[in-house]
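hiii, so i know i said id send this last week but things got crazy w the move. better late than never?? heres the sequnce for the chain we talked about at the cafe, plus the structure i predicted for it. fair warning i was half asleep when i ran it
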Amino acid sequence: MAAAYAIRKGINRVLDGIMQYRHTLRPSLLEEFKKVALGPSSEGLLLTCVDSRVVASRLTQAASGQLFIVRNSGIRLFFTLILLIENEYWFFFFVEGNLVPLYDYFKNNSIVGGESAVLELTCSRNNVPLIAIFDHLDCKTMNLLYRIRNEISIPSKSPLEQWLKTHAVRTVEQFKKLESSGDYKRKLIFTSAQHYEDDFEAFIDSNNEFKHFDKLSQVNTLEQLRHFLSYPFLRERLKGAPLRNQLCYFLIRFQRKFERMLVLARIDYG
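okay and structure toks below
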């Protein structure tokens, strides 16, 4: 009985939403749709988590045609902004646990993931000026990664676990260096996939304010910069531009100067 009710509730949510959209919102958007049909000018790529608590279009107030949006598992309320400007580029990470596979994984592998394909579609073929990774605290995928961190080399029949074991190896390796220090005060070194000058060092939650799986998420945030820079077409576009980066763990800013995350604000979900 409970299962049947849950199914009906889910179906009604979808159908009622569609009908409400058609009768109330769609008429006011028709002119906007006509403009987009003639030639959309997208302003960025947004990668966000599949978590139902994250409504990306509402959070960004993006209109039709403004953003490419991709959702996968393991993004966790980071908001990573990579501004690809003509003479310089900036990295802003307000992220927590998104996984973008390293380019090397696809270089010798016939299987190509949607994340890398979308990076090429948007950044190389459509020249969007922004990459954003958006998600939330208490990511279930990052919590899972923390629980299986000591089994990372053991194949799994679970698609989600295997996804993490394939693409989060480096994150786990970095976290274990931090974990081995006992007090989590060890400085981590993050090496660039391409250029030594892009290497940086960071303390992770040196004030010990976050849970262990949230520390892992912060490590993962910083690790994703290395993953982005491993893609030749993205690196080619940024060639010759000075790197300025700020990495933020959802309103927690990483500053190279202080080599640590600085808490600006926290948003918790009830």
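btw The chain has a mean pLDDT of 69. thought thatd interest u
miss u guys!!
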